[in-house]
Predict the structure of Phosphate import ATP-binding protein PstB.
Amino acid sequence: MTETAVMPKQSAYDAVALEAHSISAWFGEHKVLDRVSLTMPARMVTALIGPSGCGKSTFLRILNRMHELIPSASLAGEVWLDGTDIYDANIKVTDARKHIGMVFQKPNPFPAMSIYDNVVAGLKLTGTRASRREKDYLVEECLTKAGLWKEVRERLRQPGGALSGGQQQRLCIARSLAVRPQVLLMDEPCSALDPTSTRRIEETIAELRDEVTIVIVTHNMQQAARVSQQCAFFLAEQGTPGHIVEAGPTDDMFNAPVDPRTADYVNGRFG
Ligand SMILES: Nc1ncnc2c1ncn2[C@@H]1O[C@H](COP(=O)(O)OP(=O)(O)OP(=O)(O)O)[C@@H](O)[C@H]1O
C-alpha cells in the first residue's frame, strides 16, 4: 500500500517546527539561493537577516509555496512541516498556505470590507464553515491575540481601510490567525510603520510565539535582537547565490558570532 501525504491535523493553535532542507531557487536562469537548510523550531521566533538581495524574501516565500506563483521561478529541496513535505505532489497549495500563513511588508487588509469580515475572510478562502456564534468568538479571539481587540471592539463594522497603518497590520495578523496556522511568516512587517506601532507589533509577536512558529525577515538588527530567539544570516557574495553564513541562538549571533562576516553585519559594518 502506498502512503498518501496529508497535512498534519490542525488543533487550535499548535506550533510545530518547520524544516527547510537544501533549498535552491532560481528566477529563470538566475540562481538566487544555494542549498539553504534551516530548522525553525516550534515556540521560537526565527529572524532571517542579511543585506538586500541575498534571498531572504525568496526563502520565506518558498516556505509557504508562494515562490511558485512567479512564472519564471523554480526551486529544489524540501520543506517539512511536522513530518510532511509541503511540496509533496499530494499536498494542495491551499492546504500548505492554510497551515503556514504570511504577513507582508505593507499592511494589506481588504480596505472596503469591515474589520469583522476582514478577520473571517480566510475562512471562505479555505472552505471552512462556521456559524455566526463561532465567527463572533473567532473574531474576538484573533483580534485579542493580535493586540487589537480593545481598540476596535466598538467598531467592528467599520471598514478595515479606516484603521491606522499599525492597526491595519495587526488586523492582517488577526486575519492570518483566523485559519489557525501552525506557522506565521512575516516579511518586514514593521518597515512601513512608526516606532510606536512597531513596538506594538513586536509585543504581539512575543505573545504569539508559544502558539505559532514565527519566521520574520527584518533589516532592523535591534528588532531581530528584541523579537527572535534564533537568527539566520544570509549573504550573496559577488553575484553568487544567497546562502546561510551562520545560524544559531540570537544571543550568540549578536555577542559571539563564529564568522567574522556575521560580526561585521550585525554591527552595521556593511549591508
Ligand atoms: N520576481 C522576481 N523576478 C526575478 N528576480 C527576482 C524576483 N524577486 C527577486 N528576484 C531576485 O532574487 C534575488 C533575491 O531577492 P530577494 O527579494 O529574495 O532578496 P532579499 O534578501 O529579500 O532582499 P531585500 O532585503 O531587499 O528584500 C535578487 O537578486 C532579486 O533581484
